[in-house]
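ESCALATION

Customer reports they have been waiting on this structure for their group meeting. Please prioritize. Original submission:
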Amino acid sequence: MTQTTQSTPKPPARGAYLADESAARVSPAGRAWVGRVQIPLRDGGALLVTHTGYQWPAAPGDLREATATERAAYDAARARWIRAAVPGVGP
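Update from on-call: job pushed to the front of the queue and completed.
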């Protein structure tokens, strides 16, 4: 008799850039939200944070690694946000 075991997805690394595809499936459809992992969750999901500091939980089945273009856009938006929020501070 063969036993099958379901493995739990490996939690993403803290600070990793991930895209949450669930935003692209809602009405009206949009792009995937890109965030950085604040807290990895045991089920393979993550608590993500946008460049503005908004946090949301993302399910493991909705996550993918962000592309280089998405990571660059996140970093640029974060730098603009920091400069606007605190003049004279930021990258």
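Sent to customer with the following note: Residues 52 and 85 are 10 Å apart (CA to CA).
Escalation resolved.
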